[in-house]
Each structure stands twice: as structure tokens, then as C-alpha cells.
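Review this fold:
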Amino acid sequence: MKATKETMKICNELYGSSHHRNNRANAFRHALWNYKISEKANEILKNDQKSTKWAKKVTFLYENVTKNDFLDQKMDIINNEFGRNLFLTKKFKNRTELINFIQNSAKKAQKIDKNTSFDEISENLTYISE
């Protein structure tokens, strides 16, 4: 999928291999990935809601296949949703503006652990470790 390749290329350039851990770089990757999937789907579907629904299906399938532990999966799902919501609510002039916005959001990401009450998670990105 083009969105996945583009996301991985950007993340490798910005973060090296560190985006493969449960850190802020990983939060960035999941948000960008969902934004890009929504964006690419919208080129075909021409409907923002349908595009984000498609992105959600794709990424939920991915999460089910990867069989991560509960906390890893919860982190990914929250960050995926952030990216889809971002697609629905904010349009960017260019790729740099999008990347800067998500990077700034990652800097403000909320750390989660096994004691986190997910009902209290705000609309921020999340991470598990630095």
C-alpha cells in the first residue's frame, strides 16, 4: 500500500529505527499512517467519512493480525484514531505542515502504562516508553 510505504519512508528519515519501539516516534508513525491511508482512500472514494472508515478497517485488521499485548495494542489504536480524526478536522497546505503538526503532537503525547484509565485519555497521542 502506497500510504504505508510513504509513512515508513518518512519515519525512517526522521527517526531511524526508533519508530519501531513503543515511543513518541511510534505514536507519530501510527498517526501519520492513518492520515495517509485516509488521504489515499479519499482519492478514490471522494468522501472523508468513508475514507476514514476504510482506514479504520485496514488498521484494525492489522492490529488483530499482529497480536500485540493489550497495552501496545491500545496505544496503537489511540494513535491510529488520532490520525484519522486529524484527517477529518484539519487540512494541511503541504506534507511539511502535516509532519510538523504530528511531530508537535508527539512531543505532547501522553505516557500510558498498565494503570492508565483509558476513559481519561484526552485526544492526544500516546506512548509507553521513551
